[in-house]
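Sample entry as discussed:
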Amino acid sequence: MNNFEQKRRELGLNYGVLIWHFHYFSNLDSYIELIENFLNYKIDVERFKTNFYEMRRLDCRKEYRWETMLYIINNLKLKQFQGLSSVISKLFTNLDAFEPNALLRENYEIDEEKVRYFAEETLSKIKTYNDSWMPFYLHH
């Protein structure tokens, strides 16, 4: 049994979930920059939504080489990423509920002010992940 397989068995099912969180964590600076640009009115809500959706889509499609996975398992505390995908997904859901036109807005939909509130909340949470970041380069 190789080292990767041994580590995978030791970590059990939590391994897959923690690696999923890592997909977002490896691009955390870009999420922070995007949210800050929106909150500082450097981009409008539509550009924010489009860029956020695209970043998330690309993160969900990432694949890592086995060598990268071994490095992550052996050298990083995977639990430091725990919960990050939920934070990113919550903002995704909030953006999905955004309706700019007050006349068309349903009860479950939100306006730009609420999007800004949720973006600020998300930024606060993901910055705590960023503070614990141990820099290293991933080679895809």
User: Anything to note?
Assistant: The domain at 3-131 is CATH 1.20.120.650 (Four Helix Bundle (Hemerythrin (Met), subunit A)).
